Amino acid sequence: MDAMKIEAIETERLSLVPLAVEHAGEMAEVLSDPALHAFIGGVPLSAPALRSRYERLVAGSPDPSQTWWNWVIRVRGENCLAGTVQATLTAAERGCAAEVAWVVGTPWQRRGIAAEAARGLAAWLREHDVRLIRAHIHPEHHASAAVATAAGLAPTGHWHEGEIRWESPATES
Length: 173
Description:
The protein is α+β, with helices and mostly antiparallel strands. It has four helices and eight strands, in the order E-E-H-H-E-E-E-H-E-H-E-E.
């Protein structure tokens, strides 16, 4: 797992491209709808603020016990960015579990893009020996729950900061 490097992930319609600082300008537009923050809080970031955030993400976690992987979602047929997916592993879980998240810009929602991206990410993680995939979803965010289901996750009885923990079934190693 330590030698695992982030790489592009291809699905039927999408390319999950490793995040680069240069994506900030286009992604600021993709993520500009304040409604995207209804469940996660905050406000849309300007292109310079997003660029600064991406610089930190691309540099990697300052905590050596964590590994951050971030991708932008490119819709190949439209040659445009539509959102992001991410996975975070911690030293205690390296090789066995990842925390994942996704966001798709409003114009690209209701087209199955988030579900396809999350399925692609989950498959890639499983191919790289990640045995448990976890996400935290607001109980009223039905679209995100549908995405988690599509990625093979199911709700658990565990709550964290007002969100329900969803997990994939652990696989045999």
